[in-house]
Amino acid sequence: MASSDVQKTPLPVVKHVIGDDDMGIKKGVKIQVVNYSKVIKLLTDPHSVTLYERHLNALQKLIRHYQVGFLMKDLVQVFKILNVCADRVQEQPLYIQPMMEILKIAGLPFLKEKTSDGTAYAQIVVESISQLGYLMRVPSKEVRLQLASTLLNIFSNELPKQEVQDHQASSRAYNMAMVEKSDVAETLVKSLALLEQDIDVKLHILDLLQNLSAFSAPNCDKMLAAEAASRICSRMNDAEPTGRLLFRSIEILWNLLENGNKEEIAEQLSSFICIKALQEAFSQQMTSGFSHYDRQLRNDLLVIATLIATVCPQAPFIETGFAKQLLLFATFQEVRSHNVLVRHLKLGTSIEDFELKKLLINIIIVLSKDVSMVPLLAEGHILLALFSYVRGNENVSQHQEWTPAQFEEVQLHAMSALCTVAPLCVQDYMTCQGNTRLLLLLEWCVGKEDFAGHGNAFHGYGGRGNKRAQMRYCLHLMRSIVSIGEASVNQDFVDQGAINQILDILLSASHSESDDDVIDVEMQSDMLSILSILCEGDIHRKELFGEKGVKVVLQYLKTNPKKLCSGLGYHRMMLATVDSIWCCVVGAYLNEDLFLEGQGVFFLLDLLQTCSANMHNLILGCLLDLCENAKTVAHMLAWKSDKNTTVASLLIKIWKQEEQALGVARNENGTIADTRKPLMGVVQEKAGIVPLPANSRSQAIVDVFENMRAKIYALFCKIGFDDHPSLSTSDQVVVCIIEKYLDFKQGEVWKEVTSELEQEGVRPVTPDEEALSVINRTTEELAINVADTQVDMLETQLQQDLLEEQEMYAEIRENHRQKEKAIKRWNNYVARTSNYSLLKAAKTDQDLSINASRVQTDFLDSDTYHSTDLANLQTTTFQSRHVNIDSTPLELTGGPTLLGQPNERDITNRVTMKENTPIFVS
């Protein structure tokens, strides 16, 4: 007990913890925390609001302690201090320097105490960056310049990382993401209105906007929301000696085009002020710019103008005079002009000038879509300038001229432009002798002159080492010209021998053994289309097409059907071929006869069977017009495919496919399902019957044009609805509908008339009402009769099938009976040859049968009767001195016969016998 009362001495507690900081292990700057609340209270408290020296000391202390950056959690207090200073700058300029120092620190990476601070304080960071943009209201040049530098550091510049104890700096990617979420880009655009008189600050802000829009679509969208394109473009020509204002403005517009909404940009730039500003800038760079930099800037301006004209055709290019000026710059090299703008202007062969030429041609194409542009095109002699390139190429170039490769590229671009512009200025086209130029170029393309194309750029595709690119665009231009249907132009082509010239090229191409690529097929299609347009509706031109043309189209009709799906454009070429047959052959009796002699109808039907459904309509129309020649029907009826398909069954197959596509109601066996709507499809039914003006086609009439059933009906009228023995019953069921197509369609039209009158509240007079009622009732009764006929045909076919089935089974039974009879006969034969008693019985039965078959038997008892039978001969055959013996086959006996005859393979042995010699045979 005494020992327990003794108190134990307590162990000492160590109160000193030695950390990394005490050991000197930590690296980096240590942040000394400042009480922001005291600083804010000092600045805002009414009692200390005028203590400027204390304010400056507090701000300097804050700046000294946070030289490496602000903590994310302190950003709210930091920007409260900045806003207080910003509001007092105008009264007390002494706040400017501290503001600039704080803003400079704000440009450093923000500091995080924990990794999660980046997410936790993200919204605070976004709002703080937005506050930087709002500080542009401070009327101080130094502050604004520092703001631009701070924002540039936050978004773009990669600052050297400083090590801070217990803190981590935010990454550049994080800062960029926060800037994109803020509205600083929009604020900066709006602040440009405050900087009209301060060009230096404006240039820095534009530089900042250029960086913000360089690779950031969100920033571009927010800038566009503030109408950045319009604001910047309208003031890019302000006086500025270094040229940086124009350069920065164009760069920003380029960034907006690359990363923003092009339609919105073009809409903002399509105002009169912006177009005028673009015109002034382009004209200034065009006439006064000589450096590489100036030329690039000039081309950039032209690209922007092209985009505006493409997206906004209503942009005032004509009203501002920009369009006329562009035409002048595009043509001054080829067409002499005394305009002061181009009097001393020259373009070299540099890459920038070469690109300018192509851009000018391109913008002319875009502007020509406006009808108001046509008089300016004629006034500017654009066709004369472009046609100067429509000539044969040369392998060498003169001094200060385009190189052969450059000339070829400009030439192809010019011909591409002529495809759009020439049809708009037909009179100028004829004045420039366009037809002659094109035919001469076409002759050069197929001639033997040595020229190897360079095949550069888009238009030169497939033209390296040959003249195909020139020929391709020459044919494009010819097709564009003849397509406008100007009689004088087409007649001039014919008078200059275009038909014969094109036929010679096609005849050579059709017999070529080399494989055609997509360019060759495209050119041949264009030539066939040109011939179709030239010959359509003119007998004289069809006669010029003549035998040579018929040979050409026949050769193309022989094209392997498998090539139609090759992707090289053969389907387009086949369409052009069928169209040329329709336009150049049909209607000229000599051409039709030559076409028929060459089995052209057979080729057309072969093509109809193998081609895709979208070609059926054209081929059927061509065949229908060919049927006006009486000889065609015989060819159609004589045609049979490799699978013995006739023309009638082929037309019925297409009819079924067409009705299936239209959604016409039919039963499973093909009969009419709804007698009230025997022809109506789903689309026509959904459209319903709507009252229309008298000059508008109703749905029933439109249906005739939109599908092929009317053509198939017309063809059946030519070849007949009967006398097609190869048709199955299901096909004949369809023929019943085809035969009554016109009656059904007339009834459908009258039904529409009745429904329209009811919807419009119009009651016909009594005789007309009765007539309409009779017509509708007659049409429905006709449909019922056709449906009954179809059912009868199907039932008859069913009965015929049953009868044929019974006959087949009867034949099978007869075959079995004959086999059984043969087996029984063989068994009797074996029994007779094996058993003598059976042979005698058989002989007796035979004699009885012979006697029973005789009508008269009295002569047998006559004295004069002599029997021819051999006595005691027990055989069932009729013998003479020579008999034929059927030996048992060796495969059955396996050895010699019972008569001791040798083992021979002869089935029949002839044996000579003596009179009255008995022999046992069956």
TrEMBL record:
Species lineage: Eukaryota, Metazoa, Echinodermata, Eleutherozoa, Asterozoa
Signal sequence region: none
One GO term describing the cellular component: non-motile cilium
Keywords recorded for this protein, A-Z: Coiled coil
Biological processes per GO annotation: positive regulation of flagellated sperm motility
Record carries keyword Lipoprotein: no
Protein's name in the database: Cilia- and flagella-associated protein 69-like
Species of origin: Acanthaster planci (Crown-of-thorns starfish)
InterPro entries: ARM-like, ARM-type_fold, CFA69, CFA69_ARM_dom
Pfam families the record matches: CFA69_ARM_rpt
Domain Cilia- and flagella-associated protein 69 ARM repeats: 35-753
Coiled-coil annotated spans: 795-822
Recorded superkingdom: Eukaryota
